[in-house]
Amino acid sequence: MTQHLQQAQPCEIITDALRLAEVVALISRETEVAVDLEMDSLHHYQEKVCLIQISTRTESWLIDPLALKDLSPLAAPFGDPGILTVMHGSDYDIRSMHRDFGIEVSNLFDTMIASRILGITEFGLAALLKARFGIELNKKYQKADWSKRPLSPEMCAYATADTSDLLQLYDQLRAELVEKDRLSWLEEECRLVCQARVNEKEGPLFLSCKGAGKLKGRSLAILEELLQLRDQQAREQDRPAFKVISAETLLEIAENRHRSANELNSIKGMTPGQIQRYGDRIMAAVAVALAMPEEELPRFPRQLRDEPSDGTKERIKCLKSWRQEKSRKLGLEPGVIAPNWLLEGVADANPVDIAALDNMPGMREWQKKLYGQELLTELAAV
Q1: For residues 104 and 337, what is the distance between their CA atoms, to the nearest angstrom?
Q2: For residue 154, what pLDDT is reported?
């Protein structure tokens, strides 16, 4: 197994404000830093950032948000356009840093996005480090509870490994993007990721439940009561909702409208412990929904979309065929060239000139420059 490119050494855990200020002063003199986060979403009701890993080309630190009351000093280097923040799969980390600490990143290089733009199909960090440097990442603590203290030396080593070699990976990927004249693509995508924010969920819980869209009326009402019950239990137990009862189990109860605790025994995935603990409350929740007046039953909101015209269908087919050939020539996944929703939007709008593409929601500048005229030519031929 190849050793990490940085010198192997114990990584310092930053737990006091004075030392944090010293580390911030150090990284503020850098031109690029590697950053990653660890969270506890698999273990607690309210997810939070539990660790921030930062590496320069010679040193690494673990910032402990659970010990530090104020992480605002980090806002300056992360928000400095003169310091590049290198991350891998940064979208949710960017959202989480802003949610928990109000910290924004202004200059980002995401190595996962870079890999996809280069046509690399195995773009996970472990796969990239193994392919590029022969480094084997230990993923033992991928699902660990990072809110627990003290952190073991093994957990610290695991966390540090996610950033200690990221700048060397950045060097290679950036050079390859420059060689292929795709660096501007990456920069535009990263500017958009920097704007990502956590959206507070509003409305009924069933709106965030996969599979709820197939339910109607009273079954949907039952599902909402069950989801509310689960959410309350998860909050009281400080556990993720899916660890209380799975959504699939609640969907089955709602679909079949089980009326007695005995019927719960027939549900796949429902354990005897869950029936003993929640059975009576589940039945009470079902009874509430069954007694609900017809006019109060919920409806799943559906976007009213007109059936695509024959002309639009033909244009979509044409554009997908064009995309397949374009992705083959560039060695990129079709979804990187243009996701389906973008092609469908273009086909529906049927633009006739480049100016019309400027009003196309979600279309990037690099996409317009790369193939905007080709799209117009393809559409004109349909």
Answers
A1: 28
A2: 94
What whole-number distance in Å separates Cα of residue 79 and Cα of residue 153?
31
What is each CA distance from 55 to 23, 59, 110, in whole angstroms?
Answer: 11, 6, 15
Length reported for the chain: 382
Task: Name, in order, each residue with C-beta under 8 angstroms of 167's C-beta and a sequence gap of 6 or more.
Answer: 32, 33, 34, 55, 56, 57, 86
Joined tokens for residue 71: 């992480």
d(CA 95, CA 93): 5
pLDDT attached to residue 303: 61
- Residues β-bridged to residue 51: 38
**CB distance 378 to 318 below 8 Å:** yes
pLDDT at 132: 96
Q: Which long-range contacts (CB under 8 A, 24 or more apart) does 343-346 make?
A: 343/316, 343/319, 344/308, 344/316, 346/315, 346/319, 346/375, 346/379
Query: How distant, in Å, are the alpha carbons of 63, 120, 216, 274, 334 from that of 371?
Result: 44, 21, 43, 55, 13
Residues of the chain with pLDDT under 50: 1-8
